[in-house]
Amino acid sequence: MAWLVKDVCGIICALLAWVLLAFAQYTLLTIVLLPQPDTFRKYFHLVVFEFFSILLVIAHLKTILTDPGSVPQKTATPEYLRELEQNEFQQPNNVVYKCPECCSVKPERAHHCSVCKRCIRKMDHHCPWVNNCIGERNQKYFVLFTLYVAVLSFHALYLTVTHIMNCLESDWDSSHNSCSMMSKGRPSPGKLILLVFLVFEALLFSLFSLIMFYMQMKAIWTDWTGIEHLKRESRDRRSGCMSLRSVCGNHMILWLSPLTKPPPKINPLITSHARSSSYMNYPV
Fold first, then answer.
1. How many domains does the chain have?
2. In angstroms, what CA-CA distances link 77 with 11, 48, 110, 194, 273?
3. Any idea which residues carry the catalytic annotation?
4. pTM recorded for the entire structure
5. What domain range is 90 assigned to?
6. Which residues cross the membrane (predicted)?
7. d(CA 34, CA 227)
8. Could you tell me if 152 and 45 are in contact, meaning their C-beta atoms sit under 8 angstroms apart?
9. CA separation for the pair 136, 122 (Å, rounded)
10. pLDDT tens per residue across span 150-205
11. Position 269 in a domain
12. Residue 2: inside a domain
């Protein structure tokens, strides 16, 4: 089933991410890379930048269009609660939690998102840049998205700064070092403004994406989501390696690929009595 959060702010932010990528593509290609002589360096950086751009687009779309782990709505009916009560696997100290917002039986580690209007399994946070929650089924794609943004930002920053430095060293001579910023014998203000804005964009998003990547990797390694950390929810945690494999899969060679799906999850509806008491609960 297709998944898309119908949130105006989130859709605008997701489209803005594409606009910023398109701007970086246009500026870097037309001013920095394509005007250079046909050398190995030119085509190497061109292939690398476009390769990671494609991976970024795939990871971004996967994060947006993948159900993050939504819980079926309106499942907390009296009949279903009685069925859970008779479950032979039910333990004495366990309780069933009902979400008062979407009337669903909340699995362990699920939280309600006010933007998605659903309970999301293993919800970390809601990110407007991907117009979606980051949860059990799309966390891998989001981690890769932040990684690719960081790689592209640092790459664009390096290429842009070195190009400007080459132009300065050649005294803005367009025949030297492929300085393509000349217009009528002097530096083009328009091209210079585009490059300065690209440097600012690359600096901003390289730092932002690195911070997000670190926070996500820490959450995965400690098996403690962002919401669980904020609410100080206590529970048994898996080891870092087990948690990493549960998000990215068992084959390390496929961890960096946005084309592979995260491993399937088992989502029991019976929740531990250690969960936060801020939700409605029905002892069974």
1. 1
2. 34, 54, 18, 58, 21
3. 127
4. 0.86
5. 8-283
6. 43-61, 141-161, 192-214
7. 46
8. no
9. 5
10. 999 999 999 999 988 888 777 655 555 557 665 555 667 888 899 999 999 999 99
11. yes
12. no
